[in-house]
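Protocol step 4 of 6: record predicted structures for both targets in the notebook before any analysis. Target 1:
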Amino acid sequence: VTLLLRAQEQTGDSLAYATAVRDHAGLWHPHHVLFGPLMAAVGQLLQAAHVQVEIVTVGQIVNTSCATSIIYVFFRNLTACGLRKYIVAPLAAMLAISHSFWAYATQFEVYLVPSLLATMLCFGAMRQRATRAFAVRTALLVASAILFHQVSALLLVPLIGVAVVERAKTSLRISITTV
């Protein structure tokens, strides 16, 4: 699927990011602090394993791995939430054959890593109760997503809303039980 749906050419931003990583100039971009270092690290790991690839290919490997993981997390967590596989499988298949999804996955772009983290966060929140461990995992996922792309800070909006509602429900329960 990836070969059929991959981007035929890189965008201007993709080429600028790839050049920054390749040349180690501007590796720490202020809008996506960890993206460049991750790509550089994966590129160095591949070189250490004697695999010679261009930096754009490194980005495509990382992003397609994230895209594949997103599809898996999507499928796994929807079935874990009680949806039947015959309902979830076509939904996951639609995502898997989406041209736009794979176009981003095969660009040297910053969006797939934080998208994977956001997918893990959303589906994790659907399945878990609010515990201290859940709060720590949530904080780590959100912080990581923000460091991979600053727009991920928008994930905080629904999280704060849920926290406020949960707090209000807890306060209401405490008030009712004391009366």
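Target 2:
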Amino acid sequence: SVKALTTGLTELVDLTSDATTLYALGDGKVVSCPLTGCTTATQVTTAFASSILVVGNTLFATTNFNEVSSCTLPSCTLAQFVSTGANTYPAHLAVANGTLYWLAENGANKEIHACALTGCASPTVLYSGTAWSYSSGLAAGPTDLYVSSFTGGIFHVPLTSATVADTANITQLTGSAYGT
């Protein structure tokens, strides 16, 4: 059955969880609520972001249209983790292989970026091209990434290592019913 964990949240943008806590992004802040439920969600930090992800006790968020920020939970202030470059619009965070992945929009090019969870001076670009349009989600596994495209379905991106994509073998797994 469906259970309300909390009420009063509006303008929700993204959700993530760990083993005990749900985190919600919206209204310019990240809030938390135990998975068992809460009357009022607890504010974790302020964030005008497009995506959030919790890894261990670290909250990651895509912020300022050109960076991934992070802070240590339970209550924290976001600081730049890595700059993603001008006009990259990072979103859709995922993690695998000790690596943080996200999608970026750079004009017509759609990109997959990566950075070790321990940090990096600049992100590695695993893919830059036009295989899909309008990125809407990212999932990461030990040997594969999966990109959802609002108008193009789901794409499989094989990895040869944590930071190298086999871009010659990107395949569309399924269409979206929007012309693909």
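Step 5 preliminary note on target 2. The radius of gyration is 16 Å. The chain has a mean pLDDT of 91.
Proceed to step 6 after PI sign-off.
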